[in-house]
Structure formats: structure tokens, C-alpha cells
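Lab notebook, design round three. We kept the backbone fixed and only want residue identities now. Task for the bench partner: fill in a sequence for the structure below.
Input C-alpha cells:
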């Protein structure tokens, strides 16, 4: 699939087919996340694949923004201690940007594999640490439900409103 086609088809999916996603495809998405850049090339990003229905159910109970009932989750994590120790104080904030890049890689790889996803954030960090068995130094930056789109879920190109592109200086058109 061409990149422009994947970008045109990128849309949030909230309804998934219940069939499991093959481990090979989930690993491919995890590798796409790892291919995204990190500040100073410090390897502070980690990825967790969750496909145990009990764990997914527990995550859904503590994460009100996770509306979908997916067969898998891809969780993008940051080792905040490592990011700050190796990059400096800016490592805590820049790692959030890097996680967004990782999430976009995952999203595009999912489209290429015939899968669907969306971005979900976590607001209850202590609870998610318990559910996923994470040490205190790890931060959950993104939770991405992953699966095959349910029957009737739109998968074609999205019509997006053109947004302005500014050259050299901001111009609000006034």
C-alpha cells in the first residue's frame, strides 16, 4: 500500500470484529512503534501487546476513554527515568512527542495489515500500572485498541477538510 493511501484511510475505529489478531501482525505493529524516533536515540520506549481478554477487560474498567471492545491492545510505554537520565529534563516531555510518532507508525502499519485502531490515553496511571504490572518508572503514553474492523465500520478514504498551510509566517486570513 502506498503511504498516501494509508494516510487517506486513517480513521479511528471504535467497533471491532471479535476474532483474534494473529501474533505475527501484532508483532509487526510493535516493530512499527519501535521504528519511530526517540530523543537522542535513547531507547526509552517500550511496547506491550495485550491480547488476554481478562487484562483487556481490566484496562477498559479503569480507562473510560477506551470505548472499544477490541481483541488486542498495543500499549506504548516510556521509561521516564531513562529518558530524563539520558536526555535531561526535556526527556520527560519529548518522550510524549516520540510516543505520538510511534502511535502514528502503528496506525499506518495497522491500515497496511487490514487492521484498525485509534489513540486512547490513560488518566488513571496508578491503576494501569497495577493491571499491567508496570514499575513506577514506566509511563503509559498511548493505549491503542487493535483488531479487524467490525462489519459496517467505515474503512475507505476519509474526506478531510483542507487546513491552511502557512509559509514563512503565520497568516490567519484576516
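Proposed sequence:
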Amino acid at each position: 500500500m502506498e503511504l498516501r493511501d494509508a494516510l487517506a484511510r486513517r480513521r479511528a475505529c471504535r467497533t471491532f470484529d471479535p476474532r483474534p489478531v494473529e501474533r505475527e501482525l501484532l508483532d509487526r505493529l510493535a516493530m512499527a512503534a519501535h521504528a519511530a524516533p526517540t530523543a537522542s536515540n535513547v531507547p526509552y520506549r517500550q511496547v506491550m501487546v495485550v491480547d488476554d481478554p481478562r487484562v483487556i477487560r481490566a484496562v477498559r474498567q479503569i480507562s473510560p476513554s477506551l470505548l472499544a471492545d477490541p481483541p488486542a491492545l498495543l500499549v506504548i510505554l516510556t521509561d521516564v527515568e531513562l529518558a530524563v537520565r539520558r536526555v535531561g529534563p526535556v526527556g520527560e516531555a519529548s518522550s510524549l512527542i516520540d510516543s505520538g510518532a510511534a502511535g502514528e507508525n502503528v496506525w499506518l502499519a495497522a491500515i497496511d495489515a487490514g487492521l484498525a485502531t485509534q489513540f486512547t490515553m490513560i488518566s488513571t496511571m496508578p491503576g494501569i500500572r497495577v493491571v499491567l504490572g508496570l514499575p513506577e518508572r514506566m509511563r503509559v503514553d498511548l493505549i491503542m485498541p487493535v483488531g479487524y474492523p467490525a462489519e459496517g465500520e467505515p474503512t475507505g478514504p476519509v474526506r478531510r477538510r483542507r487546513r491552511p498551510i502557512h509559509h514563512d509566517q503565520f497568516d490567519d486570513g484576516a
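Keep this in mind before ordering anything: The chain has a mean pLDDT of 88.
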